[in-house]
Design a protein that fits this description.
The protein is mainly β and 101 residues long. It contains no helices and twelve strands. Strand 11 and strand 12 form a beta hairpin.
Length: 101
């Protein structure tokens, strides 16, 4: 799959993460100091919505059971052998594009 428009830059303020539907998948897009990162929004633990979690630096905390993920890698902070898919992001003008492959 090619890059697909997922959101407008203004939809995701710095320091926030939100969930968007991209190609039929729930994707969490985070804005870390103006740089955008995209990961699968479904927590590996019990399916919680990572796009509804709190973002601190590069770490998003799942709102269901507090599993923490690095949005730059998709890996669980406490155990890097576990994680969710991480997707390439491109900013084109005012839009954020994600390639979910």
């Amino acid at each position: 799959m090619a890059f697909v428009r997922a959101a407008r830059k203004d939809d995701i303020p710095a320091g926030k993460v939100y969930e968007f539907q991209v190609g039929g998948q729930a994707i969490a897009i985070a804005n870390v100091a103006g740089k955008f990162h995209a990961i699968n929004s479904v927590c590996a633990h019990e399916g919680g919505p990572l796009g509804e979690g709190e973002l601190e630096g590069t770490v998003v905390t799942c709102p269901w059971h507090a599993w923490q993920y690095d949005v730059t890698t998709g890996k669980v902070v406490q155990n890097a052998s576990i994680g969710v898919d991480c997707y390439p992001v491109e900013v084109r003008g005012d839009d954020v594009f994600v390639d979910i492959g």
